[in-house]
Amino acid sequence: MPELLIELFSEEIPARMQGAARDNLKKLVTDGLVEAGLTYASAQAFSTPRRLVLVLDGLSSESPTLREERKGPSVSAPEKALEGFLRSTGLTLDQLEKRADKKGEVWFAVMEKPGRQAPEIIAEVLEKVIRNFPWPKSMRWGAGSLRWVRPLHSILCLLSDEAGSTVVPLTIDGITAGDTTAGHRFMAPASFAVTGFEDYAAKLKAAKVVLDPAERAEMIWHDASQLAFAQGLELVEDKGLLNEVAGLVEFPVALMGAIADDFLHLPPEVLQTSMKEHQKFFSVKNPKTGRIEGFVTVANRETADHGETILKGNLKVLSARLSDARFFWEHDLRLVKSEGLEGMGAGLANVTFHNKLGSQKARIDRIEALAREIAPLVGAQPDLAAEAARVVKSDLRSAMVGEFPELQGLMGSYYAREAGLPDTVANACKGHYAPLGPSDAVPSEPVTVAVALADKIDTLTGFWAIDEKPTGSKDPFALRRAALGVIRLILSNDLRLPLSKKLAYGVLKNCIWIGVQAGKTAVDDVKSFAEKFDADPTALNTMLGPITAEIPDVELRQDGRTNVSEDLISFFHDRLKVFLKDEGIRHDVIDAVLAMPGSDDLTLVVKRAEALSAFLKTEDGGNLIQGFKRANNILTQAEAKDGVEYSYGADVKFAEADEEKTLFAALDAAEAALAPAMAAEDFATAMAEMAKLRAPIDAFFTAVQINAENAIVRRNRLNLLSRIRQICLSVADLTKLEG
Amino acid sequence: MAAPRSFQEIILRLMTYWASKGCAVLQPYDMEVGAGTFHPATTLRSLGNRPWAAAYVQPSRRPTDGRYGENPNRLQHYYQYQVLIKPSPPDLQALYLGSLEAIGIDLNLHDIRFVEDDWESPTLGAWGLGWEVWCDGMEVSQFTYFQQVGGHDCHPVSGELTYGLERLAMYVLGIDHVMDMPFNDPDSPIPLKYGDVFRQTEEEYSRHNFDAATTEMLLRHFEDAEAECEKILSLPPEDPNSGKRIVMAHPAYDQCIKASHLFNLLDARGVISVTERQAYIGRVRALAKKCADAFVQTEAGGFVAEAQA
After folding, report:
1. Winning range, highest mean pLDDT, from A637-651, B6-20, B291-305
2. Could you give the ipTM of this predicted complex?
3. The pLDDT of residue B158 is above 50
4. Which of residues 128-147 of B touch A (CB under 8 A)?
5. Each residue of A607-638: pLDDT tens digit?
6. How far is B88 from chain A (nearest CA, A)?
7. DSSP 3-state assignment of A113?
8. In 3-state terms, what secondary structure has residue A418?
9. How many CB atoms lie within 10 A of CB A648?
10. Is residue A505 predicted with pLDDT exceeding 80?
11. Which of B78, B82, B59, B58 is CA-nearest to residue B161?
12. Cis omega (within 30 of 0) on the bond before A435?
């Protein structure tokens, strides 16, 4: 079976695009070949900065001949029918066959689609793939019209088997496929011909090109670790950087250097970020001190002086870069010592957060008020939470964060310590952005948690108040992430937070701000607002009425809530569903729980949902739900028919069958046991108690007919069903469950 | 090749090299610009279908980068070396590497890398794909295949090379502070360093750009340049004096360049807020686009008059 080798040789492909390009080349070419009727045994794709390579093993040498028979009209059918058949098959009358059929003679068309040779198919597929390749960004060059990620120089397309190899004839935009490629740009630039993949890989190796990116990454990691180890140091792991650097070189050579003493006092994160962002250096740590003391750079070549010149040049650039970093660090320290951390952030009053939501300073004021509100609920001191909130964004004005935005928060924590602020405040600076991703660690220190929640809730309520919600795939302000952050903060800290109220508060704070900007009124005294918000919704209305009236889509209710905050809570519920689904909880289980009161207390919701989910997985649980549904259906129908609600007065004295009496007893027992368990929010126990109803309910339905002749007995039984319903619904809205 | 000894020798070698590769060696444009790209030999000549090959030094001004001559690497006035070839030749990377050899960089000892860096000029309505070229981890050039300029697709595509001359020369000459770099040969009867030529002007312009320039006047001149550019372009192509068809793309473009530099000065004076900034950039871009529209209506821009009856 032949082997197919394709190499697309171009100018330097951006490192970040190479991974997807390998996958796409493999998928698009193999899909195209298979669709055209070829088969293959295995496929592998490789890349270097200058080439994309695909090799297919065990490719069939031609596509099979396809034979199709179609039955046409009867020989005696009208002319029109025959004409139509000829048109649809593309044949002429003399090419048709007459065959006997049950109803007499019938026309048959026998069509053969001959198989095609592999080269013809490959050429067709490859041209299509190249012309439509899904690069994130592509370009034209010279006077041509072909698009590629960077100018494409040559195409190697070779079919080979035991008998030898042949070039697949193909020309795209003036580039004719051949059997040649070139080696390393500097170390072995000559071009050479190859006879197949094995020959290609061997010759590339000799020409100083390591074809496999995984192998290059391994070489880099191995050599760099060894260099560090030899000096008693260790390499700091960075997978993303490793993959990127492996995509920047065809022949990796690791070189290690030391960071000059003048820079060793800089925070390790600063050294690491500067070296990585600007120069793609790996950091080297001293395991004894934990300090970053060296770096590894990866060159693309060997040199006669063993990299000495290269290392010297890199050191020079590093020293210029770190001088900048040191300048920023010293500048920031001076500033924070003279002005304090809050002073460092003074300029935030002139920085716009969002043109409808005001400056960063206005935002910080809102976060501060909210953090103070939330603090008692998360076990933090309100004053400390407020103090932290006032300074957590200050480092956005530091020179260091101006240069390296990814160090926001972290720099704040350094500067907070320099300013002599308590550790809790410093930690809040660093931790209040978290959690950022689904796998990011969740803060647990109360002050950090209070500020982190206040920050995210302010962002969410602000954008909701100005009606900038995420739509479809568009979420420019990362509001989904913020909501998930709130959910994870609440759940992993087991917080009991009446979220609706906090959201209403946040929305109104934002409304006040918007209103004040529009010159409506001057309710901006945070404390008085907070007091009124808690104590007296009517006074709140008086205070806020004129403001909210000016803001479209916000309607203030008597209880201080708004339609906007209710919409936002349902956004939280949607996020929660996504989150719990990943934890293996069915969406209908969540719906059943969300329908219960207290659904804005996410910790309660999750406790309940977990208990219900576990309950449903037990045999008793599943059956009890069926029993409940049966009871509920019968009852609902009867209530609809009779026009009354059977909700009270089932009396054991009208019970006739033993099973009926047993059920009465079981319901009494369940009610007695459920109440304290529910009060203690011990849902597992509550559901275990409920599970005990399963046998009596099943037995009851087997033995007893609800619609008895005797109207009193019937009514009593319906009222009994109502007790089942009541007890079951006290745990969750089981009517929402599917199946 | 022997190592160069001065800043000017590096410039002379680049000139000689690119002349030997067939480029027309042009002189700097006689206006204040922020980068070599603004020279009409690049901006306008990258438009239309006429082949073009030019190389030149362009003094470039970035008022916000002024550091009173004290920063070893930052200047408000510096030199760019610019090469533009249309259509981009298939061996442009090799030609570029040859230019590094010409200025004394031994490709067998150094690590040259092409690292993704896409270029975009919001003021010119232009973008392209390419790389920043690294020599031992230092960015020494920008290498771009123009895709669009002034809102027009480039057909054919120009290849553009931009060398930051001071930085490159400091690297080649092994100098740590730009002001210490020999400008002419250090063995000349009167050896001059970069600082002898530019330290004082860096101070003067830093003070002027940051504190002294009259903002009201700058604002007024910006409006004037904008109005003048539009007026020039609004005139009909037929020149009443000569009776010829003369589209005044270049004079209009001069006004666009002026507006751009005035915007940079206003920015350095700190009188442009974040939101206004976008609006100003948009106004300059609108001018650049109109100039590009006009240039493609000229002969150099590939305009072909309808066959005369």
Report:
1. B6-20
2. 0.93
3. yes
4. 128-131, 135-138, 145, 147
5. 889 989 988 888 888 888 888 888 888 888 88
6. 4
7. strand
8. helix
9. 9
10. no
11. B82
12. yes
Given a cut of 80, is residue A330 above it in pLDDT?
A: yes
Give CA A445 to chain center in angstroms.
26
A301 contact residues in B (CB cutoff 8 A): 111
Give contacts of A299 with chain B, Cβ < 8 Å: 111
- pLDDT surpassing 80 at residue B81: yes
Query: Which contacts of A541-546 are long-range, i.e. CB under 8 A and separated by 24 or more positions?
Result: A544/A508, A544/A511, A544/A512, A546/A515, A546/A520, A546/A521
User: Is residue A73 helix, strand or coil?
Assistant: strand
Averaged over B226-250, what is the pLDDT? 96
Backbone φ, ψ for residue A466 (5° rounding): -100, 15
Nearest chain A residue to B91 by CA distance is A153
CB A37 within 8 A of CB A115: yes
What 3-state DSSP class applies to A36?
Answer: coil
Strand, helix or coil for residue A145: coil
- pTM score, two decimals? 0.78
* List of chain B residues whose C-beta atoms are within 8 Å of the C-beta of residue A137: 118, 129
pLDDT tens digit sequence for A216-263: 999 999 999 999 999 999 999 999 999 999 999 999 999 999 999 999
Give A510's pLDDT tier (boundaries 50, 70, 90). Answer: confident
Closest-CA distance of chain A to residue B225, Å: 30
Biggest distance spanned by C-alpha atoms of chain B: 67
Domains of chain A with CATH codes: 3-62+117-206 (3.30.70), 66-74+85-112 (no CATH), 213-335 (no CATH), 351-392+442-582 (no CATH), 609-736 (1.10.730)
- B-chain residues within 8 Å CB-CB of A309? 109-110, 136
**B23, B53 in Cβ contact below 8 A?**
yes
**Chain B partners within 8 Å of A151 (Cβ):** 88, 90, 145
Q: How far is CA B143 from CA A28, A141, A315, in A?
A: 31, 13, 24
3-state secondary structure of A62: strand
Mean pLDDT of chain B: 94
**Pairs of residues, one from chain A and one from chain B, whose beta carbons lie less than 8 Å apart:** 100
- Cross-chain residue pair B73–A313, CB shorter than 8 Å: no
How far is the alpha carbon of A12 from chain B, nearest alpha carbon, in Å? 6
B235 touches chain A (CB under 8 A): no
Q: How confident is the model at residue B308 (pLDDT cuts 50, 70, 90)?
A: very low
